[in-house]
Design goal:
alpha+beta, OB fold (Dihydrolipoamide Acetyltransferase, E2P)
Length: 239
């Protein structure tokens, strides 16, 4: 018997049968879990199945390797984005990418807190896009494919880092990268420091950077494309 209760963020849900639902959540301490929710179509439960809803997730399964059943209770703290289409798209994209990128049942408290932090800034349109890029970079790091932005891969210098090598995922300085800039990925300054400013075009460069490595390490090995919602988000933020 496997049984636990944990704080969780709903990543997505689909109908199952006439009245039930299958929900995917990111729990604080147990990673991503799928579960059957009895009465998922009911008026009380349906709002708790929206992407980004914070819930208390009570899970129970007879065997660890089977799909168990769960109940949900409101956890509070979910952002209100009904009048913010772009922020809502960012939330939905973050939930989809989390579900598709991170492995199931792999406890990573850092992932839960990172997604929660991103959700906390979604009402602030001048802040959240850069935080979203850092969130994707964090998922790469959690999978063991983190970008090494500490110093230039060629010279070892730590100043004027401008590019990232598509082969190694390591930073490259301005001088070392200049002759090869057409073959390198651009590195936006805000990815080097949480205090770094976000210049024009930086968010899109950051999204292009994380998309490149997510495609290489996560999606292409399984012959899958980058999710449509991720492409749509990048398109919207490039306008």
């Amino acid at each position: 018997m496997l049984e636990f209760e944990d704080d969780a963020i709903v990543l997505g849900a689909r109908a199952h049968g006439e009245t039930g639902a299958i929900v995917h959540v990111l729990t604080e301490n147990h990673g991503i879990y799928a579960a059957h929710i009895a009465g998922g179509a009911s008026r009380r439960v349906k709002p708790l199945l929206q992407s980004g809803a914070k819930v208390v997730f009570s899970y129970r399964a007879r065997h660890a390797d089977q799909l168990g059943a769960a109940t949900l209770e409101a956890g509070g703290g979910s952002p209100d984005l009904l009048d913010d289409p772009l922020g809502l798209l960012g939330l939905q994209c973050a939930c989809v990418m989390t579900q598709k990128v991170l492995p199931e049942r792999d406890g990573q408290p850092g992932a839960y807190h990172a997604l929660s932090a991103l959700m906390g800034v979604l009402p602030y349109e001048d802040i959240w896009p850069a935080v979203y890029v850092r969130y994707e970079a964090g998922m790469l790091d959690a999978l063991g494919y983190g970008l090494d932005l500490s110093a230039c891969a060629v010279s070892g210098e730590r100043d004027e880092l401008m590019y990232v090598s598509p082969k190694s995922g390591r930073a490259v300085g301005r001088a070392a990268g200049e002759p090869y800039k057409d073959k390198l990925l651009r590195l936006p300054g805000f990815m080097l420091s949480s205090q770094g400013g976000v210049g024009e075009g930086d968010v899109v460069r950051g999204l292009e950077l994380t998309a490149f490595f997510l495609e290489r390490h996560v999606f292409h090995p399984h012959n899958k494309p980058l999710p449509d919602i991720r492409l749509r988000l990048q398109d919207m933020l490039s306008r």
